[in-house]
Design brief:
alpha/beta, Nucleotidyltransferase, domain 5, 3 domains, five-stranded mixed beta sheet, 5 strands, about 45% helix, about 15% strand
């Protein structure tokens, strides 16, 4: 079990459950076997023996092991994908950085994380450097970083850089971030309580979120209809 934990990249609970299923233990023995929660801390310590210590500064090198596939090949999925998806998160970011930024590629109708970046901020210059690094890696692999579609949130500095670095790409806004932005807009107008308590107001807000799902040539007309039929409290919401 310890060797599997160290050699495989699957989650520890998945490895444990799979090996338990393969063990052909009797029903009695299975009831006596510890559940993964009881031994997860022990197995985590086993896996940590094969991982490098967490860096204490932003100046560190990524080991070769984390730059290759399990077969020792370099990653090429991102540069062969017509679609890429960009997103950042801040909550779990190491203290030396401001955000963890991930770039996903599309394969087999599923998206896969291809690049995980530790960024010191979210300025246009930082995103330019990120695209410069990606183009450099593509060149070394004798490929091109020329996706046809990009999906991201609505961060203005990122949108600006995408227009600069990928001028021919079709840039799609993420529906989740769109609805999240509209909900935050209701809060900024002090409508959070009304949103929870007033069904008509809530329906109008949600209908606005659903505009993105309409055919493009119907959106403007539907927006005007919603604006005219919505409660007075939403006058500023539609500005």
């Amino acid at each position: 079990m310890q060797l599997l934990i160290q050699s495989k990249t699957n989650s520890i609970p998945k490895i444990y459950e799979e090996e338990l299923a393969r063990s052909n233990l009797s029903s009695t023995a299975l009831t006596l076997a510890p559940v993964v929660v009881e031994i997860k801390s022990v197995l985590n310590r086993v896996r940590r023996k094969t991982t490098p210590p967490l860096p204490t500064s932003a100046d560190f090198d990524i080991p070769d092991f984390y730059q290759q596939t399990l077969n020792g090949a370099q990653f090429i999925l991102l540069f062969s994908s017509e679609w890429i998806f960009l997103d950042g998160t801040f909550d779990k970011c190491p203290k030396q950085f401001q955000q963890i930024y991930t770039i996903h590629g599309l394969k087999f109708q599923q998206n896969f994380p291809c690049v995980i970046c530790l960024l010191s901020g979210k300025t246009a210059d930082i995103y330019r450097q990120l695209f410069l690094e990606l183009n450099g890696h593509a060149t070394r692999l004798k490929m091109k970083f020329e996706p046809k579609h990009v999906m991201s949130d609505f961060e203005t500095s990122l949108i600006k850089v995408i227009k600069e670095k990928l001028p021919n790409v079709i840039h799609h806004g993420c529906f989740f971030h769109f609805t999240q932005s509209l909900y935050k807009h209701t809060n900024s107008l002090d409508l959070s309580t009304a949103y929870l308590e007033d069904e008509d107001l809530r329906l109008a807000c949600r209908s606005t979120m659903a505009l993105a799902l309409l055919p493009q040539d119907h959106i403007e007309e539907a927006f005007e209809l919603l604006k005219n039929d919505s409660p007075e409290e939403l006058i500023d919401f539609f500005k």
